[in-house]
Amino acid sequence: MLFIFAILVLLASVILGLIILVQNPKGGGLSASFGGIGNQLMGVKRTTDVLEKGTWLFAAIVAILCLTSALFIPKSGGNNQRDRLLNEATPGTSTAPKRNTVPLQTTPVQPSAKP
């Protein structure tokens, strides 16, 4: 599922980049790039409106896809080794199989008689 989100984010980002590159900061925009074709079809004012709306639309799509893709990240992803090491370091919480160890037998120390 994350792979699908990554492809969608990449595709929307490329389209957003192309829309931004087509715009001209001085107001020429798409109509100046294609030699007046955009002016004949939609008019200069209309072209810049469409490009601005497209910029906002694809920026919102990228943001929404990035935020929703975080919901599909596995909760145990990447921290399995760290969690296992922490569990082994903490006595009594380890889920790993116990080793065959023999507990040390201690005898209580008898207080010696004072001379």
Structural topology:
Elements: H1 2-22, H2 29-33, H3 37-41, H4 44-69, H5 80-89
What does this structure look like?
The protein is mostly helical and 115 residues long. The protein has a domain at 38-72. Helices cover 58% and strands 0% of the residues. The chain has helices at residues 2-22, 29-33, 37-41, 44-69, 80-89.
Please report the total strand number as a whole number: 0
Tell me the overall shape.
rod-shaped
| Binned strand content | under 5%
- Encode the helix/strand succession as letters: HHHHH
Evaluate the radius of gyration: 33 Å
pLDDT < 50 runs, ≥5 residues: none
- Largest sheet, if any? none
Proportion in helices:
55-70%
Structural class category? mainly alpha
- Total count of helical runs of at least 4 residues: 5
Nearest-integer average pLDDT: 74
Descriptive labels:
115 residues, rod-shaped, mainly alpha, single chain
Short description:
With 115 residues, the chain is mainly alpha-helical.
